[in-house]
Amino acid sequence: MKLSGQRHYFAKKDVDRREPLFFLLLFAVIFIKFYFLECEVSRHATRYIASAASSAGIVLCLTVAVSLFWRKARAFVALLADFGFSLLAVTDILHLRYYSDMFTFMNIGLSAQVGEIADSVIALIHPSDFLYFADIPLFIFFIYISGKFRATPFFKKTGIKRVCISMLLLIAGASAVFFRFWSYDKKVPGVLSSMWDRPAVCNNIGVLTYHLADLKNAAGHFLFREKLSDAQISEIKNFFDERANMSSYVDLSGIAKDKNLIIIQVESLQQFVIGLRINGAEVTPNLNRFIKGSEYFSRIYNQTASGNSSDAEFLVNTGLYPSATGVAYTRFAGNSYEALPKILTNKGYTSLALHGDRPGFWNRNRMYPSMGFSRFISKNDFVVDESIGMGLSDASFFRQTVKILNKTPRPFYAFLITLTSHYPYNFEGIFKDTELNTSPYEGSLMGNYLTSMKYFDDKFGIFIEELRINGLLDSSVIVLYGDHTAIPNWDRASLEKLLGRDLKNDWEWKNIQRIPLVIRIPGVPSKSGENAVPAGLIDLPETIADLMGFKFKIGFGASLLEKGKRNPVIFRNGSFITDNVFVDPSSERAIEMSDGRVLDYSEYVSFAEGVKKHLRYSDMILEHDLVPALVKED
Ligand code: GP9
Ligand code: MN
Question: Are residues 431 and 573 located together in one domain of the fold?
Fold first, then answer.
C-alpha cells in the first residue's frame, strides 16, 4: 500500500524516526566492527570501560558530523564513512596477519614496500573479512525501502534543535576520548607518542582510539614542519665535511677489514654487573672472561631516550641521536639512512638482523629495510620452541642463530638483539635453569635482575663456544653492549646497598647510568684492558668503520680507537659529560663527578652551545630526511 501517494514502507507516524534509526544503526555497525577487530588484535583484548567509551565517543562524533551534512549528500557521505572504516578495519587485519602489527599512518610513506608484498597480502584475505562490508548493501536497501533513494526523503534539513543536540553529543563523545588519552598517558607516560607496541596500545585503549592517536602523531609529523633553506643544508654538509677531514689515523685502523661483524645488543645489561660477585659467585662469569680478551669500554653512558631498545639500535647503526620527540624508529622509518648495514651491504656483506620478538615491535620490520638490512629474522621466522617473557628465550635464540649464521654467505653483518632479560626480570623460565644465590635480594627486582643477567651470561657462554666450534669466532669482530640501564630510580636504595656506595646525588646517579661495551677483534689481544674514557653508543659506527677500514661520514660519534681529546657524551635532553664533568644547561650546573665539586658553569657555556648544535643538526637530518642530500657529492 502506498502512503501519501509515495512508495513508503513505513507508516506515516514512523517517518520521523527513520533518520535517527539510520544513524543509530550506522553508529552500532561501526562500533561493532571495531569491537570484533579488537578480538583479532588480541584474543584476550582488555575491555576497559573507559576504552569502550572512547571508541563509542569517536563513532558518536563521526556519526553526528555525518548527520549534519547537506541533506541530499547525507546518505552518500554516511555510506562513504562506513566504507572507509570497513577498509581501515580490513587493512588492520591484513597488517596483523602479515606483520603481527597494526596499520599506522606514520608508515604511509613506505608504500614502495607495500607493492613488493601485495601478492602475499592478497593470499592472507579470508572470505569472512568481507563481512566487514556486509552492512553497506543493507544500508542501501534500508534507504531504498524507506523511499526514493535519490530524493533521500527521510533526511531532514538541519534545524537549530538538531545543531544544539549535535553539539551536546559531540562534547560528550570528545570528552570520553580525551579522558582515555589522558588516563592512558598518565598510566604509561609517553606511550601515545612513542607507540612502541601498537597492538598493546590497541589492547589498552581500543583500536579506534589508537588510530586517532596515530593520526595525531602522523599529522604532527607530516604537516607541521618548517622548510629548510639551502644555506641550512650547506651548513650541515660543511659540518660533516670538516669532521671528515679532522679524523686521525689510528693503529688499529682497517685491522678487521672483510671480517664478519656480529653485534650483540643485550637487553638491560647495565655496567655495574661486570665483575660483580654476589655470595662469592660471579654474576657474569662468561662475559668477564670474554672481556679479558677484548677491548672493554667501561664508561659508556646511556644515551637512549623514549625509544629504549630501539634508540640503542638507532644510535649504533646510524650514528644519529634519538628523536627529540616520539621515537626515531616509529617516526622516521620512511627516511633514507647511510647506516652500518647499508654501507656494509654495499661492500658485499650480507646484513641481517635477528630478534625473538614480533617483527612490528618498535616498527623494526619497517626500520630495518630503511637502514639497509636485507633480512630480518624475527619471532615469526624462528622456531618458537621455548618462550620466556616477551618472546623467544635467549637460549633458543642463540642456538638457532648459530645455525643461521653458519648458512649465511660471508662476509656478513649480523645484528643480534636479546630479549629474555627484559624488565621486570621475573619471567618464570629464567629461574628454572639459572643458579645464583641472590640473597638478601631474592624475590626483589634487584635479585631477579641479577638472576636474569646470570641467565643471559650462561647462554652467551654457550653461544661463544658454538661460534668457536663453527670457526666463526676468529673470523668475526664481536661487539657486545647493553642497550640501556636496568635499575629504575625508585630502586636506587637496592643499588646503593649492593654496591655499598652512596648514589643519592643526581651526579652520582648519572654516573651509574652506564652500559658496558666490549669489542673482540680476532687476532688482536686486548692491549688496553679497561678503557675508562667517557663515551656513548653513538661512537660505535665510527669505531666499527675504523676497524673495518672505511669512513662513516654522517654520524655524530667519533672512533673510540682515536687517542686524544674526545667529544662530550651528549644526552637527548641537552645535558652532557665532558672529561669527568657532568653539565646540565637546563639548571646551569657543572659538577666534577669524582668528588661532586660544583664548578663554574660559565666555563661550559660555549660547550653547551656546541652540544645544542649537534642535537639540532641531528634533528634536522631526521625531520627533513637529509642524509641523501648530505652524502651527495658536489
Ligand atoms: C622488544 C625488546 C624490548 O622487542 O627489544 O624493548 P624495550 O622495552 O627495552 O625498549
Ligand atoms: Mn631494551
Answer: yes
CA distance 126 to 55: 25
Pair 161, 285 in one domain: no
Distance from C-alpha of 271 to C-alpha of 291, rounded to nearest angstrom: 12
| 3-state secondary structure at position 66 | helix
Domain limits at 123? 2-223
Q: How close is the Cα of 311 to the center of ligand 1, in Å? A: 10
437-453: burial string, b at 16+ Cβ within 10 Å, e else? ebeebeeebbbbbbbbb
What is 386-397 written as a DSSP string?
A: SEETTEE-HHHH
Same domain, 156 and 254: no
Q: Report CA(162)–ligand 1 centroid distance (Å).
A: 49
* Residues framing ligand 1 (Cβ under 6 A): 308-309, 357, 361, 390, 417, 419, 422
Q: Which residues contact 439 (CB under 8 A, 6 or more apart)?
A: 279, 447
CB 54 within 8 A of CB 209: yes
Please say which residue of 201, 223, 245 terminates a domain: 223
Helix (H, G, I), strand (E, B) or coil at 279: coil
**Closest ligand to residue 356's CA:** 1
The answer to whether the beta carbons of residues 45 and 199 sit under 8 Å apart is: no
* CA dihedral of residues 465, 470, 473, 475 (deg, nearest 10): 180
For residue 418, the ligand closest to its alpha carbon is 1
Label the pairing between strands 589-592 and 598-599: antiparallel
**Of the candidates 204, 203, 199, which has an alpha carbon nearest to the alpha carbon of residue 183?**
204
CA of 416 to the centre of ligand 2 (A): 13
Q: Which pLDDT score is estimated for 158?
A: 81
Q: How far apart are CA 64 and CA 217, in angstroms?
A: 24
Amino acid letter, 105: F
Q: What is the model's pTM? A: 0.83
Mutating to test ligand 1, I would choose from 100, 265, 308, 379 the residue with most ligand atoms within 8 A of its C-beta, which is: 308
* Residue pLDDT, tens place only, 459-495: 999 999 999 999 999 999 999 999 999 999 899 999 9
pLDDT tens-place string over residues 262-292: 999 999 999 999 999 999 999 999 999 999 9
Compute the distance from residue 153 Cα to the ligand 1 centre, in Å.
56
CATH of the domain at 414: 3.40.720.10
Amino acid at 358: R
Domain end (from 223, 250, 281): 223
For the chain, what is the domain count? 2
Task: Kindly indicate the confidence band of residue 5, based on its pLDDT and cuts at 50, 70 and 90.
Answer: very low
Residues 433 and 538 in one domain: yes
Nearest CA to ligand 1 atom 4: 357
Q: What is the structure's pLDDT at 119?
A: 67
Q: Which atom of ligand 1 is nearest to the CA of 267?
A: 9
Q: Which three cell numbers stand for residue 104?
A: 599506522
Count of all residues that appear for the chain in the document: 634
Q: What would the grid cell of residue 630 be?
A: 648530505
Looking at the structure, tell me whether residues 44 and 93 fall in a common domain: yes
Ligand 1 centre distance from Cα of residue 309 (Å): 5
> Residue 560, SS3?
coil
Residue 391 Cα: closest atom of ligand 1: 4
- Clarify whether residues 499 and 529 are in a common domain: yes
CA 486 to chain CA mean position, Å: 18
- What distance in Å separates the CA atoms of residue 344 and residue 339, rounded to the nearest whole number? 9
- Cα distance between residue 390 and residue 374, in whole Å: 24
Instruction: Give the ligand at the shortest distance from the Cα of 268.
Output: 2
